Fold these 3 entries.
Entry 1:
Amino acid sequence: MKTDTIFYTLFQTLPGVLFELLEQSESLALHYQFTSVEIKELARRIDGLFLPKPDFPEDIIYFVEVQFQRDDDIYWRIITEAFLYINQYKPQRRWQAVLLFPQRSLDPGVPFIYQTSLNQLQIRIIYLDELDDVRSSSVGLGVIKLVVATEDKAVQQAKNLINQVQQTDEANRSNLLELVERMLIYKFVNKTQQELEAMFGLTDWRQTKFYQEVKEETKLETIPRLLKFGLSIEQISQALELDVNQVRQAIEKQGKEGTESNS
């Protein structure tokens, strides 16, 4: 599943959750704008940037990376991005890189050169499955704990989270429920819309379009595996109930992304 999408949506909706993870007051989120910026040297964007507002000159810039698969270059990449951002925008502030891993085993370890050249406070590592239960009372942390929950615990956690959202004030309830619904679609991607409604008592499922987009996205992600099994484009199209042109375009896009990542 595209876990980073969930987290960046979470940060946009509930920016205070980052500061909860950092064991700070979630009210600090009022000092920040969660945004993305373009790095010209890389011809790409940094999606997870907490940029302090001008009224708070002492606050730190946070570069946030969500990493749910093994990547031995993750530290090299986020530090490179941070320094290129600093070079391009020249902010007069302190900064910190925050890396979120679902579990400790996916952390390749901070490269030795960064251990010796960076202030210890400039890299903050959080293992989401090790969050203690004391810090699980907020909706934001509840969503995060649901992301990393095992299948046997996820259903009950999701029900508890929905109940918690339904007890929030009416002004925020709609946005929070939408966020949780998106999370459920990603977490239980093999369930139909009707099954999810029945499982969680959701009779007003507003994200039908989003649901269809996620289901299609999941299908597109399976295309490389089906190609490895020797299926033709036409066979993949039939198996996934996709248009042949959709399959071709997905293969071309994935090929370009692979070439760019190796360059």
Entry 2:
Amino acid sequence: MKHILITGSTDGIGKLAAIELAKKGHTLYLHGRNKEKLQQVIEEIKDATSNDNIDGFVADFSNLDKVKAMAQEVNEKASTLDVLINNAGVFNANQAITESGHDIRFVVNYFAPYMLTNSLIPLLKKSSEPRIINLSSAAQAPVVLEALKGEMKLSAQSAYAQSKLALTMWSVDLAKREQDMIVIPVNPGSLLNTKMVQEAYGQFWSSVDKGANILMELTENENLVAQSGVYFDNDQGRFAKAHEDAYDSNKTKTLIETTEDIING
């Protein structure tokens, strides 16, 4: 049985994947922004699955200080971690610019998982077969560094697509750097019936199950070593090519250097 941390797991595909993985007996760590809602979901899943090995962490991913504090808490609380699923994401927001002056899509969808993952790599390496699953999207657009740095405003769609390509570029690079880990960037499916999609588009193409099922498959499949760093497109149901920038080492190097400057600035 695996120890699995799923961010953004109080609703949508994160919650559904948590339920199904709990049914199989895995130890789960959930994450949410709201303490009461998180506790409610933990109890709900325990009752539904008869699995008591479920705990949780609270953090608002639009605030990187909170992400840093959560990473420290996970490192203190968890003795091992086999799988990290970076599922938390945002499209629409009442306040598009965070207190740090950055677009919330970049912060929640890219900076937060980047920071959390790098903080948890030593813990993940205690596992015999560590893996990281990063929730990308079919929406991927070239990253404008001025926008990443908060020096240029973008539409919600553009910021979202750029944040998802940034996450994918970093995932491909991370797989090269950490060859004893499996890193999979995945588009769980376009316009799934989630709260985020309904708020953004008011319509959906597929059920939440489609996204949850691929997260379960990528979590439990033992034959993914050769696929580390390869993008999985669940619209096609197979490993495929991401945006061409994901394979541009110079652009990725600049992205990561800029990211480090922003996070540590």
Entry 3:
Amino acid sequence: MADIGLIVHLGRREASAHARDLAAWLTGEGHVIRVPEADAEVSGLDELRVDPAVFAEGLDLVVTLGGDGSILRAVELLGESSVPILGVNHGQLGYLTEVEPAEARQAVARTLAGEHHFDERMLVKVTVSSGGESTSHVALNEAVVERSAEVNTIRLAVELDGEFFTTYAADGLIVASPTGSTAYAFSARGPIIEPGYPALLLTPVSPHMLFDRSLVLAPTTRIRLTVDGHRPATVSVDGRRVSVVGDGDTIECTSAPHSARLVSFGPRRFHRVLKAKFGLNDR
């Protein structure tokens, strides 16, 4: 018997229907199922509802029914625990999901039987210090510090391992993991980094300066961003807005001491994923 968490895409009815079917099957097999409050509400699984604050406690596996965004939510809910995540693709691109809906039951059974591998993904630890208080977060993709809608550019002073590097005048800065190099940083013309290569990626968004290149840094680098000036900025972690920061406030990023563990059933060759997702045909 296993304790299994379900994360459901909050906007797709087919994912909710699949969640009900999967929950019924797993419960019939003797497993304990728990679903965060919001997911339980949209999928009609109120009897399995749990507070998100205790969702991760004692879990053996999390199954996400959605796209990559559902996996990002699972990482947020799991915090520093290393519970394996099995992604079932009810999304569109599905970089991170492992199986299609028709394969879900077999995939769960194989995972519980130990017939699987782990794809370890580096996480970014993000510490925001503002107004004398600090909050910590983990990101699978990226942390973003960018201008609010009311201002034009912002100024962010960057330190690398305690040494001043430069001050960026830009719409924002992205600190991404290798996994996140194909997310927001990619749209800002940053490089693509193979997910298994340990690194941190610092990419400016629409820089108003001559130096406009990304930096690929060692994963142990401590990247410290300090707001320089009166213009406020917003801080987002994997697409979730977590703070508004002002003059003198800091955001420090480095690799987290733990990783996300994505269930896989064979090697995921990154170049094949890129070819499939971007329609790169052989020439």
